[in-house]
Queue: 3 jobs
Job 1
Amino acid sequence: MDYKRLGKRIREERKRLNLTQAELAEAIDISDTYMGAIERGERSLTLDTLVRLVNRLGVTIDYMLADSVSDNDSNILEQFKQITDGQPLERKQLAINVLRTLFSYFENVGR
């Protein structure tokens, strides 16, 4: 986890909303000293704190963690699994057919 990049992204979003560190810290129920350490990448934060933070900043967790999550094949496959879990077999088959059509289109356009 790159806490410096996470802290930089938090700082950018806080400034976008014209909030001080103290105001943001108060809004998410942490000390302003801890908020400053998070923004400098000196401290980690709990999932609960991260959720309160993204909710206050109006961004998503995946946006905040974009630098920390790699897009390798196993992660992509896990994302597909998460999306399709709980879906009926017919919908899963339809999704596979859509992907096949999409990839076929990409192959033809690439030529």
Note: The two ends are 39 Å apart (CA to CA).
Job 2
Amino acid sequence: MTRNRYLLHAGLFVVTLLSTALTGAILFIGRSEAWAAGGAIFDLGGLPVTTTFLADAFVFGGALIAFLTVHEFGHYIAARVHKVKTSLPYFIPAPLIGIGTLGAVISIRQPISNRIKLFDIGASGPLAGFVMVLILLSWAMVTLPSAEYMFGVGGHDSLLEFIQTTGRFPDTPISDAPPGSRLTLGATPLYWALSQAFPNVPPLYEMYHYPLLFAAWLGLFFTALNLMPVGQLDGGHIVYALFGPRWHARISRAFVFLMLSSMTVGGALTLPSMLVGIAGNDFWARIVTWFVLGALLALCTRRAFGEQWWQITIIILVLASFAAAVPPALDWFGYFGWFPWCLLLVFVIKVDHPPVPVSLPLTPKRRLIGYLTLAIFVLSFSIKPLYSV
């Protein structure tokens, strides 16, 4: 690798770290009173930059970058062990957008010749990343401050009144945010289990005020995304190596069906109220909703399911119709936020996996590790990872 390439990788790493740190500072800008109390080091556009400011920023950014680094180097080291040519990780900064990064990737520069290599390279990243997530999540839970921490955030008058009275977080949501604007993070099985074992765990609609805890949750989220058993995602590699091309095709399509169903049900439940202002009234908003959902479904199912696309489209639309008729029944399942991810799965990542020339059988140890990674996916996955209430 040339010196210029090393500089590129190092430069992207540094810029992404700064980007996530800046985004972290903006996410926790409600703690500006706590920052100011520490005495400003310098002024940034009217915002006092203090040691507390920098701690919040770099705890979030550093934890998130640590997870991405460990995950990608898991892939990199496994590839080098098998003498498969690959690049160092390319970190992708996204300043002021989302969480400050679009993740990181490595580039595999030659075909992977057999299933053992495919499995080792595919599984090593999520396994290494999950170990890092467990460390971050455990550290965040062990070091959680008392509920009075929220007094340094600002706002949240009703919640703060409850905390002042009881000294704890409420069992049911309390928020001063307008209806439909309170962002809530989804509980994964692992996160829920750990939250039962530690005190002072904040409610999911306030978790993003906690830099380390939020970064650890994002690690779970990215682990689940990578382990989806579709195409050439890490989970797709693992399923292909474990079960072969025929079962990979079935499992991949079943999962895409699940994602499209969740997207459509979520659209049927949320789009009409969003489109009322544009369509003029509720009747036309519903007409537009079903036209949009039908068109999106047809677009995706034609690519993913071939000749069976219209049967799959009808089944999903019937399911969404039931959800719209009896709203509470499938509210837990419907999530229109999967829309861009469905497009990515179907048109970019692709549903099928390219053939691997040599079908070497996996050793019993590798098969056990493969089942473990599938369990990690279940523990890390949330059907509604980020939504408003």
Note: The beta strands are 42-44, 47-49, 90-93, 101-105, 183-185, 386-388.
Job 3
Amino acid sequence: MIATESNPDFLNDFLDYSATILNKSSNSIKEYNYDIAHFLKFIKYKFGMTKVEDESEIKLIEINDLTIDTIEKITLQDIHAFLGYLKSNYRSKPATLARKVSSIRIFFKYLCNKSKKISNNPALDLETPKLDKRLPKYLTLEDSQKLLDVAEQPKESTHGNHDNSERNFAIITLFLNCGLRLSELVNINIKDIDFYDNKLNVIGKGNKERTIYLNNACISAIKKYLNVRPHESVKSASRDALFLSEQKRRISNRTVQYIIKEELKNAGLDSQKYSVHKLRHTAATLMYQYGQVDIRALQVLLGHESISTTQIYTHVNNEQVRNAVENNPLANRT
């Protein structure tokens, strides 16, 4: 829940515009609010509009009294100073700074072009920090099979006396076969599944709907879970939910994260190295490596807005090609 009373009116107007016209998700709205509020607190500090004298206390600054006149005075150099402050005080990584830049760009574009509240856009020439190119972490095919084998085994729940192996196995099967995001999985409703055509409709980032085709493993796992899924005393708001918690509510993000962590441990895999999102990486990598999937088909499947996001999986494959050459038995002949 965003404390709108702590924001100046023009920031709340921007958040309303983002939620309605841009159709941004609630998580995106929270990120925008956090990023822009922090930026505006820094601006008050930099412009000497507060009694706070130490950068470590900037987050304590109130901004609900800020006016558009102050925003008009902001320059590109002020934005650069904010990014420098984040890097020096919070050791923010390029990916974090890139998100801040994106939020600031959209904010000033709204103020200048849409609401016409300011005459000049100081973020017009704002560049995105150069990101490090890192290969995604993912499970090997062998480790993926091991995780599925362990998840399928009946076991007593750590939260009660119920065996949730069918549910947990179905969750991991969907992650590893479909590359779902965490939010997409927990929001699946039973009616979203078409068992006749073996497909699933999910709502991804930006509230965009896409179709995912389910293979035999997914259909089998879902049907086995539905055979044991509770039907009595399910909370009214969760009756349509596919995956339920032991409290008979729609399963939460935190519970799914806990399930994956525990199953990774049970499989003898590093739960610090791997996570729910790494299972998404695993699905994409396995499909690209073994399924001969076209990169654009993979983009659609994963719900990536830009093909450049999907291309990270081609780098994984290129690394395999390099390793294959280096492991040639003639590689050491000089």
Note: The radius of gyration is 24 Å.
